[in-house]
Specification:
Layout lengths: L5 E9 L6 E5 L10 E2 L2 E3 L6 H13 L2 E14 L4 E13 L10 E4 L14 H7 L3
Parallel strand pairs: 1-6
Antiparallel strand pairs: 1-4, 2-3, 2-7, 5-6
């Protein structure tokens, strides 16, 4: 039995002044393609999760994080890979979020997140964000 490679990923739950959350649609060719996700990406070697979050959100959205706080950590096993999600809440950034990699973006109300198809690893994030 071969060891499963764990993919370390940072995730930004970006919340605007209207309390809406930014989601992006994964490209068809990606793992879990055509599903919606919270922006982020892989942590590279010699990078802290905070550095990776700053880099990924700059590359994907063109924003500079001013502050982010740890939201949760999730380990999830898919049939073909394992992921470790370092999830951060981001409420303070500079710049206007724009799709820099061609992915569709949407600002959605918390109550509407349930209408979007997310990867299974995001279930815990989604339940934490449900309106109370």
């Amino acid at each position: 039995m071969s060891a499963v490679h764990l993919v370390h990923v940072v995730v930004g739950v970006i919340i605007n002044i209207d309390n809406q959350i930014l989601i992006a649609k994964r490209a068809n060719h990606q793992h879990q393609g055509d599903k919606w996700e919270f922006p982020g990406g892989k942590v590279e070697k010699a990078e802290t999760p905070q550095q990776a979050l700053q880099r990924e959100l700059k590359e994907e959205l063109g924003i500079d994080i001013q502050s982010a706080k740890q939201f949760t950590k999730i380990k999830h096993q898919y049939s073909d890979k394992a992921v470790l999600l370092d999830v951060y809440e981001v409420r303070d950034w500079k710049g206007e979020a724009q799709s820099r990699e061609g992915q569709p973006l949407r600002w959605v109300d918390r109550s509407d997140l349930k209408h979007y198809d997310f990867p299974a690893a995001n279930a815990e994030i989604l339940s934490s964000l449900e309106p109370h």
